[in-house]
Amino acid sequence: MGGTGRLILIGRRLLQAVPSLIGIVIVTFVLTRALPGDPAAYFAGPAADEKSIAEIRAALGLDRSLPEQFWGYVIDLAQGDLGVSISTGRPVVEEIFERLPASLELTLTALVLAIAIALPLGILAATRPNSWIDHLCRVVVTAGVSLPVFFTGLFFVYVFYFVVDVVPSPIGRLDIFSLAPPRVTGFYLIDSLLIGDFETFGAALAQLALPAITMSMFVLAPLARMTRGSMLQVLGSEFIRTANANGLERRTILYTYAFRNALLPILTTLGMVFSFMLGANVLVEKVFAWPGIGSFAVNALVVSDFAAVQGFVLSMAVLFVMLNLAIDILYTLIDPRVGIEG
């Protein structure tokens, strides 16, 4: 597929995402209004009387009918205004812009770590059936699938912080003795390297290690399992047997022919697990007091902070759409047979 074909693909995928985003906006609005609790009463405080609560409810626009509230929300959304969070008193856009890099740094680090372990593990298990590495792969897959991510996080904190004491306390992105680097990307690892502050880089990496390992365990299992299964299927194909019969080097057969043909289902799984990671972020961030968008969403849910919850869900939806678009483009790069119709 050429450059024009890819542009057509991108445009088509973006158009297909519009109805999904509209549906998400409607469903999120309705579900947040169905949450128990009164945001005006929370904002007014426990000592407020009925008159004060009514005034705050009117100021927040919650005294209007649902269609009127929804129309106002859509108008604000079209102008890039996601509202003001009643729990923090700040615009939701600012909160998301400030917290999203923390979540993405955690998620992407965990994803890179999982890929670095899962792909070699799956390939080795497929090329050495019933060996110790194959059994190790099965154990890792079983553990990763069966253990809830919050349990894994708490277990790691207990062992590596409380018992062995080889990691810093799980209190966020930096310890109390370090200062955040000047914001460029919002990723502490990158920003500290940009100014040559290796001390802050080490502190940020130490804080990031345990939550990233916890989340990588969550996605390592499906990736290793899919890699093993896909490689086993390809290695049993006729073209691989023909390549072996022609005397091609095993390394060439394995990485040039087998792995490339096994990549498409692995890539599909990669896209799925990344979307799951966006949800798992909420639990991991709460366990490690990580100041990301997941923690923000949980706190907003507790106090029925409508604007914050809607902003969080919409942000995740946009990320999911962009991720699927990237996966579609990667399909065309890996396998040119995947055309516009694919």
Keywords for this entry:
342 residues; 0% strand; mainly alpha
Secondary-structure map:
Elements: H1 3-33, H2 39-44, H3 50-60, H4 66-78, H5 92-127, H6 132-146, H7 149-163, H8 188-194, H9 198-235, H10 238-245, H11 250-287, H12 293-302, H13 306-334
Describe the structure.
The chain has helices spanning 3-33, 39-44, 50-60, 66-78, 92-127, 132-146, 149-163, 188-194, 198-235, 238-245, 250-287, 293-302, 306-334. With 342 residues, the protein is mainly alpha-helical. The chain is globular. The mean pLDDT is 83.
Please summarize what this structure is:
With 342 residues, this protein is mostly helical.
Distance between the termini: 11 Å
Total strand count, please?
0
* Overall average residue pLDDT: 83
Largest sheet, described in full? none
- Radius of gyration in whole Å, from Cα? 24 Å
Q: Name the helicity range.
A: over 70%
Spans of at least 5 consecutive residues with low confidence: none
Sketch the topology as an H/E string, one letter per element. Answer: HHHHHHHHHHHHH
Number of helices: 13
Shape field: globular
- Beta-strand proportion: under 5%
Class inferred from helices and paired strands:
mainly alpha
